[in-house]
Amino acid sequence: MISLPSFSDIEKAHHRIRPYIHHTPVLSSKSINEMVGADLFFKCENLQKVGAFKFRGACNSVFALTDEEAKNGVCTHSSGNHAAALALAARMRGIPAYIVMPENAPEIKKIAVAGYGAQITFCTPTLEARESTLKKVAEKTSSTEIHPYNYFNVICGQGTAAKELIEEIGHLDVVMAPVGGGGLLSGTAISTKALLPNARVIAAEPAGADDAFRSFYSKYLQPSVAPKTIADGLLTSLGSLTFLIILKEVDQIVTVSEEGIVAAMRMIWERMKIIIEPSSAVPLAAILENKLDVKGKRVGIILSGGNVDLGKLPF
Amino acid sequence: MISLPSFSDIEKAHHRIRPYIHHTPVLSSKSINEMVGADLFFKCENLQKVGAFKFRGACNSVFALTDEEAKNGVCTHSSGNHAAALALAARMRGIPAYIVMPENAPEIKKIAVAGYGAQITFCTPTLEARESTLKKVAEKTSSTEIHPYNYFNVICGQGTAAKELIEEIGHLDVVMAPVGGGGLLSGTAISTKALLPNARVIAAEPAGADDAFRSFYSKYLQPSVAPKTIADGLLTSLGSLTFLIILKEVDQIVTVSEEGIVAAMRMIWERMKIIIEPSSAVPLAAILENKLDVKGKRVGIILSGGNVDLGKLPF
Known about the structure:
The structure is a homodimer. Helices cover 45% and strands 15% of the residues of chain A. By secondary structure, chain A is an alpha/beta fold. Chain A has 2 domains: 205 residues, Rossmann fold; 91 residues, Rossmann fold, CATH 3.40.50.
């Protein structure tokens, strides 16, 4: 029997992580609103610690451990934001973090994770090597594995972003998030349906990595095979837990083009003067490409993160 | 007898423009603070309307006019942020704005100014042509000229940014602003000396456009001749009014290298996830280049704007 997170689990998570996270601002742009004919409210998780919402889930997972569970530390495999988030959360609790990273992870990510004091084990860049290396590390250190998204307390932590958004802005007709592994989307959906039962929860996904879209409409969990998108936070498949929640709580999943993602990203950079990574731009891309009707509506959008390599911009 | 703005003029300006401006946030970065060994508080005028502090001064100037003065509109020559700021402020008051722009102004600026409903007159890109064209436009329309910085009510408007910063953050040891024409620096200095008499006001300027530095230390107003810097908001000379205020209220002016400006800009983009234009990065560049001692101090920094051409980034 799988236990799904409820909104009261998200409330507990919020209480637990509040001393450690940034309460990120909600920004709006008059010019973007005029362009799309709707009121968009952007929850700025690009301004969260480590530059992404991932810190919420990692932090909740680390601080939810008992002292006994925590003392041997935590571990995960990740080449991205979850690794940095888990490393920082572990440092805040004063426990070790063991991170398995593929050798070809971006240098900037390796430096960030090492900078937070994590112990890194490098492996060849295949899912098999990552998982087998992690298994060895976990056995050797007796540390607790914290999966980047298919993990109860990670999902509860990610749900606190939408909770803050709705508590600040009030009524919304639609709440949107990008979907990769589904941790953010799951938490967002649970918070939204609890606080605004009539709001629609709509996920946006790159057409080049549309496994969530296919899984949602076929009701059959389909893996992400050879995804191809600039939105590098959205390459992974859904997990067993996130897929169940998404089937139950999400109203719609739409897909967008690569050009649409770059255009939406550029619009947010130029009009709002904030740096977002391509994954964050996917919901606005869906609106700009008319994949859903938001005319006259109040729409909340989670901007998932702001970690980009400034040397490799798409414009 | 020249009348210099006092802090009470800035208070009046703030009261006047408060319904129209954004009260911009003050952001900090733990990692930048650790790097420089000081507490830096960034006042985010890149998030101001039209993407720059310039809107404060333009707005104050437009709304300070009597109905009789205002009815024929306002005019200026500008290729940059002041033109957009004045156009938007005039539209908000419902009066015409006549902007003289050099033909070679960036296309994006022309579109922005036209988008705010201003009437643009193009001229050849020399100061003489700009001034003579503006004179003709002003005579023909009987509109009021609003100079971009050497103008009493512009300076009062710009001073409201530092006023908000200090009201929010409280005690500061140092307040920094970049210096171009000196409008922002003048207003910043007046607000700071009134609210924090013991704080030092320090301006930062590109070494490749160091006319304010030379003028300040020689006590003789020296023009900006063939300035060369990426900080395109800081190319102009001081004005008669701003020079007097700066001599009276500013404690120090330091200069920075071009490499330093780019490095500071990149640091703010990467660490703070906000978009600033090169001019905004000049004060942080001065700190990173050890041009002043801020160890253990609380330092307020005005980030002047965020208007950059994303197609022409220096990294």
